[in-house]
Amino acid sequence: MSDSLITIDCDYVQPALACAYLRISQGECAFIETNTAHAVPKLLAALAAQGRSPADVRYVIVTHVHLDHAGGASALMEALPNATLLAHPRAARHLIDPSRIIAGATAVYGAEQFAALYGTIRGIDASRVRSLEDGAEVPFGAGRSASSTRAATPTTTSWCTTRRRTRSSPATPSGWSTRGCSAPGCWPSPRPARRTSTAPRRTPPSTASWRWAPAACAPRTSASRPG
Question: What is the pTM of this model?
């Protein structure tokens, strides 16, 4: 079975503004990002278009808990009976109990606009959520691994897929692993978004730009970190 990566336009606010991704390897599937609850039908349609069923999805991965990335996690997990959600430990707790995130966003947007933007958000059963520290490994497909590192926010996990074996490096376990990554195939991409303001920045630049390449991962250095 071949490996593939499918980009899914979530139509968040407008077309081509936000995407989720479907990764397929050796018959196993993983969604990377969920966007909002409104996008879940699009994600499931993309899965069906690949001839896969909800039972084939092994993982749902969110890079961080901003609601345009993880707002659809609970609705998607409800549709995927065998999936485990992977997230940074400080993000996982908010996916299990999203009350603070919901309250904060509702205070900003109001209940009506919150519902229009994000839909319904519920807590995810803790038994279906796995927190991943740097250095962890989880199996997925065949001949691939991934790396998670801190990125845009303290609760961000970035992911990079690599081949299981190359001539210049030893074999690594098949699946997702959490090691420092600076390759161009990372999710989110290490390349920061373009700034349009000259005001001082208190937080690192956004890393919500995604691209795919079967490139090798290497530990980050201070010079390779964005912003």
Answer: 0.71
37: tokens are 């609850």
Q: Which domains does the chain have, with CATH numbers?
A: 1-227 (3.60.15)
Backbone angles phi, psi at 149, to 5 degrees: -145, 160
pLDDT in tens, 101-152: 999 999 999 999 999 999 999 999 999 999 887 766 777 876 444 555 555 4
Residue 145 near residue 172 (C-beta atoms within 8 A): yes
Q: What is each CA distance from 162 to 22, 147, 190, 191, 221, in whole angstroms?
A: 16, 9, 16, 18, 19
**C-alpha closest to that of 88 among 68, 65, 66:** 65
Residues near 202 by Cβ (< 8 Å), separated by ≥ 6? none
